[in-house]
User: Which sequence fits this backbone?
């Protein structure tokens, strides 16, 4: 059974700082992951997809996948109060889409 | 492009009643999913359909059934609702690699 683990937080950072969110996974064969952002009372929205080892950058977001250590991370540069949300990591797997419980991020002005 | 749509948005049921949650996507995605989300529990997979004509159980399938009616539509049925099924239900779809979209959710209360 695939498992994805995330620290529930909250992770508190000041405005303008770098927020670092992490996710570990159990399936050594996993190769690709989604990062979603979910605001309170809303549905998750996709912010990043990462497939291979290394980094992928999109604007202020950088996703990192380390297959040897079985972790995925998301860095948010120049964090803004509007980034305050829960961030969910998902193992895209073979057919399933398995989520961690999410990390709550709070960005203070 | 409407993305993923779900109906209804809200529903209140009495214990023992049945209902069907509807989901449709217009992105030509092969895979569709039903999740429930409870406070502190994250998204738990109920059922999924990797392609038209196939369905499989997820982590928490008991008390639910699904139908993949065609490539666009994937419905979730509660045959005899229980208070433990009070939750927010999300439908999602994805293609093989890069897109994974959620519907707006259905807030279900079972009294």
Assistant:
């Amino acid at each position: 059974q695939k498992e994805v683990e995330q620290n529930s937080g909250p992770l508190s950072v000041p405005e303008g700082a770098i927020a670092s969110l992490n996710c570990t996974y159990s399936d050594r064969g996993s190769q690709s992951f989604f990062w979603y952002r979910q605001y309170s009372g809303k549905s998750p929205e996709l912010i990043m997809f990462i497939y291979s080892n290394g980094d992928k950058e999109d604007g202020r977001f950088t996703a990192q996948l380390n297959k040897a250590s079985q972790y995925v991370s998301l860095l948010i540069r120049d964090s803004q109060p509007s980034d305050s949300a829960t961030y969910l990591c998902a193992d895209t797997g073979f057919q399933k889409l398995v989520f961690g419980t999410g990390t709550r991020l709070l960005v203070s002005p | 492009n409407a993305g993923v749509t779900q109906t209804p948005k809200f529903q209140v049921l009495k214990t023992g009643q049945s209902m069907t949650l509807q989901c449709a996507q217009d992105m030509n995605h092969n895979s569709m999913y039903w999740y429930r989300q409870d406070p502190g529990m994250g998204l738990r997979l109920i059922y999924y359909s990797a392609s038209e004509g196939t369905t499989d159980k997820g982590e928490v399938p008991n008390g639910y059934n699904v139908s993949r009616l065609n490539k666009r539509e994937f419905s979730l049925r509660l045959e005899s609702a229980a208070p433990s099924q009070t939750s927010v239900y999300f439908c999602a779809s994805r293609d093989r690699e890069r897109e994974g979209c959620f519907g707006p959710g259905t807030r279900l209360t079972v009294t």
In short: The radius of gyration of chain B is 13 Å. The longest strand of chain B covers residues 31-38.
